[in-house]
Amino acid sequence: MHVLVLGASGRTGSLVVSQALQRKDRVTALVRNPDKFQPAGVNLNDPLLRVIKGTPVDKADLRKAFSGYKIDGVVVALNSTRPNDMPWTKPTSPTNMIETAVNNVVAEMTVAGTKRISLVSSWGVGSSYPTTPFPVRIAMMYTNLNYTHQALTLAEEALFKAPPGIEWAIARPSALGDGKPDGQYKVTDDCRGCRWAVDRALVARFCLDALQKDDWVNKAVVVT
């Protein structure tokens, strides 16, 4: 399988890259600054890895990412840009940045004949909002988390409107942690028994699994 990763420089996206390479998949990573692209445990000279400079909000850059090889699936692990890693910090990127990237990549997928795409969203977006604890809902309403919530809502809606033939899966992880990729993720619709946090490595694994399995085609699920 050849996987295109958007958001490959991020903490979740970099794990998607490393896990895909461990599976012996071919990976194309579209990154704004290749000089700063150093995912842990990844040999940048790996013949299975191709790094393309660019941004998914630029259609020409995405076209480059799709050129030369047949892309079998796409993982979108983008997040709102902030001046630091604190989730409470106000994003500097436009609210529609991820939505634009999703629309652009779906258009390229349609041309290239690529079917599968998985998106890293968040618990609390869309139909999962009522299942979140009350303090989380308050935070989404009255803190800068609201910007991320809006951005991911728009991104999800873009996938909901994808043309026939595009098979998408949306991961809505609970709070993301940085643990080891051991154990197993849990997928649920109603979030009964949800853990408050899930390792990024497990979310990365789910996103790659969703490109190959039919279990979550055209579904948005909580991953915990």
From TrEMBL:
Domain NAD(P)-binding: 7-213
InterPro entries, A to Z: NAD(P)-bd_dom, NAD(P)-bd_dom_sf
Protein name: NAD(P)-binding protein
Organism whose genome encodes this protein: Calocera viscosa (strain TUFC12733)
Species lineage: Eukaryota, Fungi, Dikarya, Basidiomycota, Agaricomycotina
